[in-house]
Write a structure and sequence with these properties.
The chain is mainly beta. The chain has no helices and 12 strands. It has a 5-stranded mixed β-sheet, with no helix packed on it. A hairpin with an 8-residue loop joins strand 11 and strand 12.
């Protein structure tokens, strides 16, 4: 979740079947960005703009956007992360639908989109990049104390004989101007 300059709450999520990650079916999974400016009622997909091949222009008739995940069987299996105006999320593209799930490879991708317009925020304005083999975790951002810029990390499960690996993604997230307003929290469920 994030708030825009007008104070509207934006909620981000992707679709994908975590129970059957290697299935390549007829369903097209999507990533959604919904502007919850009314805080009541419900929205339909017609209230959102399809930005699969474009970007979003904020207007009174649409309440956000969605993007089709275009790879065969591509799906989101973890939560999105919003940092400094960019929403980061990972997807998994299965190699096939058969066999032992632990022997499947498949591809992990990282997406980086401007959190309101959905424009690509990677090198050359690209929206996504390939990370490696296996199912990726959610992206994690860490403020580097030596360079004062953030680093983005993702763990990829491996598969088909390769081991899991945690990597610093080859991206340069923007730094935040005011580092004194970082928010920390405690999960009260574990107290």
């Amino acid at each position: 979740m994030a708030k825009d300059a007008s104070g509207n709450l934006w909620v981000y999520w992707g679709t994908g079947d975590k129970a059957e990650p290697i299935v390549v079916g007829a369903v097209t999974d999507r990533f959604f960005a919904v502007k919850d400016s009314t805080k009541s009622g419900s929205y339909q997909i017609g209230n959102l703009e399809n930005i699969t091949s474009s970007t979003y222009t904020d207007n009174a008739t649409k309440r956000g956007w969605y993007m089709n995940l275009t790879g065969a069987g591509e799906k989101c299996l973890s939560e999105a992360t919003v940092f400094a105006g960019i929403v980061y999320f990972t997807t998994y593209l299965p190699a096939g639908s058969g066999g032992d799930p632990c022997d499947q490879a498949g591809s992990a991708k990282l997406y980086a989109l401007s959190f309101i317009e959905g424009a690509g925020s990677l090198t050359g304005n690209a929206r996504s990049m390939t990370l490696g083999v296996g199912i990726p975790t959610a992206p994690v951002l860490s403020m580097n104390p030596y360079s004062r810029t953030p680093d983005l990390y993702v763990t990829v499960s491996g598969g088909a004989g390769t081991g899991a690996t945690t990597m610093r993604a080859n991206v340069n997230p923007p730094s935040i101007a005011n580092r004194t307003n970082l928010i920390h929290w405690r999960d009260r469920r574990f107290q």
